[in-house]
Amino acid sequence: MPEKTVAVWIGERCIQCGLCVGVCPVAAIRLTERGIEIDVEKCTGCGICVKGCPVGALQLKKIVLEAKRDA
Predict the structure, then answer these.
(1) For the chain, what percentages of helix, strand and coil (3-state, to nearest 5) are there?
(2) Which domains occur in the chain, in start order?
(3) What does the pLDDT look like over 49-62, one tens digit per residue?
(4) CB within 8 A of 32, min separation 6: which ones?
(5) Is 55 exposed, middle or buried (0-12, 13-18, 19+ CB in 10 A)?
(6) Which among 3, 20, 31, 44 counts the fewest CB atoms within 10 Å?
(7) Is the CB of residue 8 less than 8 Å from the CB of residue 57?
(8) What is the largest CA-CA distance in the chain?
(9) CA gap 29, 63 in Å, rounded
(10) Given this model, what pLDDT does residue 66 score?
(11) Taking the CB of residue 66, how many other CB atoms lie within 10 A of it?
(12) For residue 26, is pLDDT > 90?
């Protein structure tokens, strides 16, 4: 199964400052009323958001991509 490195949100650390949204070069992060949402399809795993988070609420993690099935 293919793997991809993406940013993962750690909600209990997040202060909802929105800095990660502003620094993401591919617009993969958005701030919602429930917290941060990361679009793993868009995320390139560059780590800019991880470095830009003042409270360590993001980390890079390898995930296994699910195979897309034709309907």
Answers:
(1) 15, 30, 55
(2) 3-64 (3.30.70.20)
(3) 999 999 999 999 99
(4) none
(5) exposed
(6) 3
(7) no
(8) 43
(9) 17
(10) 78
(11) 8
(12) yes
